[in-house]
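Q: Could you predict the 3D structure of Inositol-1-monophosphatase?
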Amino acid sequence: MTLDTEAIDRREAFLLELLTSAALLAKEGFSRQVGQPVGMKGPQDYLTETDGMVEAHIRSRIAETFPEDGFLGEETGGRPGSQAWVVDPIDGTANFARVIPHFCISIAFVANGEVQLGAIVNPILDEVYLARKDRGARMNGKPIHVSATADVTATSFEMGWSNRRPTLDYITAVSTLFEAGSNVRRGACGALGLAYVADGRSDGYAELHMNSWDCLAGLLLVREAGGVTGPFLSLGGLTEGAPVLAANPHVAQLLSRSTGIALLAGPDLLAQDEEGLLRTA
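A: Sure. Here are the predicted structure tokens for Inositol-1-monophosphatase:
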């Protein structure tokens, strides 16, 4: 089923309303988090009561409003189908569980084989990021753009860690970036890391494996804000996850070389590709 512009319009308006109510639930949950029990889904994989509450709210609202749409959530799974909402109710749960105010909600809408809408909300700072394919990216209604940093010694990257890849791979990539002259941070909230690339606070983000609910919204934000990214969906990332890279165009190849993560690139970058790290699909 191919969705027309009006159908995407309705989902965009709905998404903005949904972000407001979901952010309120997350903020209320965070205010109660001190002393609350924390579950573990696996090593360094936290689960709080708020994760489930926020996802249940988002899922029920989508089912009521767009029953024809599929759903894929971090906590309850689902089947994406040809058009679906891909949701992380709390990205940065490790921070949330330890009462560190660096977490967000990430929601993407995928249809026609592409991410059509992507939104991230930081409930603590009341920052709402929204991107629509071919229509740009905004934060709290104002257009955003990736940074213009080109000098490697002025770059500030974020590198996420995943236990799906050997720790040595992560350490090697980070060391390579440090040796090149970059600053490297880890905020433990990949979706916000991508949002910060989109609005220019960070020059690039990379992670050797991410799930779709963590990154689809952020990747669209970066592309619509003038940045470049890696080929996530074409690698089977929707259901299996894949490596993630996003950066401003000036330093994207540096980040790609340092991490070994391929880039999706247009003609300008392809002409400069000397190591075969760029992809057109």
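Q: Anything worth pointing out?
A: The first helix runs from residue 5 to 31.
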